[in-house]
Amino acid sequence: MNLNVPAMSTTTVRTDPAASGPTPASDPEWWRNAAIYQIYPRSFADANGDGTGDIAGVRARLPYLRDLGVDAVWFTPWYPSPMADGGYDVADYREVDDLFGDLTEAEGLIADARALGIRTILDVVPNHVSDQHQWFQDSLAAGPGSPERERFWFRDGGGADGTEPPNGWKSEFGGPAWSRVASPDGTPEQWYLHLFAPGQPDLNWDHPDVRREHEDVLRFWFERGVAGIRIDSAALLAKDAGLPELLDDHDPGDHPYVDRDELQGIYRGWRQIAESYGPDRVLIGEIWLADAERFARYLRPGVLHSAFNFDFMTCAWSAPALRGSIERTLQAHERVGAPATWVLSNHDVTRPVTRYGRADSAFSFDAKRFGIPTDLGAGTRRARAAALLAMALPGAYYLFQGEELGLPEVEDIPLERIDDPMHARSGGLDPGRDGCRVPLPWSGDRPPYGFGQGLETWLPQPDDWAGLTVDAQIGDAKSMLELYRTALGLRRSHADFASGDLRWLNLGQDVIAFHRGPGLTSVTNLTGGRLDLPPHEHVWLASAPLEGGRLPADATAWLRPQS
Ligand code: GLC
To answer: Residue 25 — pLDDT band, cuts 50, 70, 90?
Structure first.
């Protein structure tokens, strides 16, 4: 046994020139095991000094992403938007908001990134538009009964004088899923459906204009060189036109607006469009479904390429829970020939170092509250271990900006600065999602930490982030950033990470251990104590320094097994 882990170093790395994986840049199926970095443009880097991130800021930082070792970037929406929901209320799908730049700059970014071997994925939001979108404005002007209203879900209200919403559906953000409009003289008239904020009216996907428009939007961006589309709220588009009340339980495919079978045909059409631009263009669904079989239907040949694995992302820090999720995921994907995805965070959920530092480390939107006790030290150790665990699994890995810096959730944003509608619509109980959307710290020892220069950042940054900046972490072998850089580099250069097979190794119920190909064994220790490692030639990388050759609690090691 040869444990090449210096006692004081948190991570160590061995390279093996004989082992090399596919070159993602030339592989049409690159998305099967890519590392994809999510950029929330408002908070990545601010080049023009207005306190909000922009495309020029991203372009200037592309070398950082290349050095981090990601294959693609996914941008949350950059389209013109009143920002009623952080840009997921799109007013024009073929333009870029002035806050972020313009179309020419977006095209420049896509080309610059490609030149560095980084593909670009855009977010398309088909379930709803902004209430400022031309279609919705036209529908208001045209009035009840008009063809313009048929692109949305307008209905008369209930009750004697129409003051009740047409049905009892609730908005995902809290409160009713219906708002009432008024005619130009102020007389209240019909109601419209919005599964999210009132500024996000739902589209009627039975309408041919709606289908045609989105197909054109896909073509528009594929023609501008994007490699893929992330489909927002992908399981919600189709509605039962009778708009029936929800039951306590629905048979699969029979819910009035979740996971309806009509969606399969919509996405088969999208797949043909994507493929007409080449085999390397990809469609990735945001699909929150508890039923793994129903989830996998979206990933059958000819439908979507890939979808986010929220089952794993929301899992508690528990070996049986994580292993169960991994098994369910791999089985469901294998049956349809699709690659699994592994996600620890995104712009909607609590940051991993915070979540894993709590007594209840599962994520649930319903459980979000202010003031939950958190041990950030434990959370950070577990987040490091979770990252290596997830990166060792077969499939694609998605990381959200700042995850690689180990940023915690910011939980003390002054209430008047909270922008996310989830906060207000929960009556102030839910802190909202802004805590993971705070502008990134790049350098320096006080806000804005090199994020920009000039106006105050759109969300305030904490005063104690000096040690978390990119500059502070680069070159520090113990830092989260160096762990990610090393792990992503190994993942990219070793064929075993891409080979697809996984063989479990039984080291006890609180250990998650498996082999990937002949050259890699991953061991994650959730026993609470030190763990003897299985026989190995050397340690590729560990999320914490070994202690007397043993793996400490809440740590992952990647080993080269004995041959
Ligand atoms: C998705 C997005 C989320 C947004 C919602 C409505 O869930 O990830 O941020 O609020 O859709 O568009």
So the answer is: low
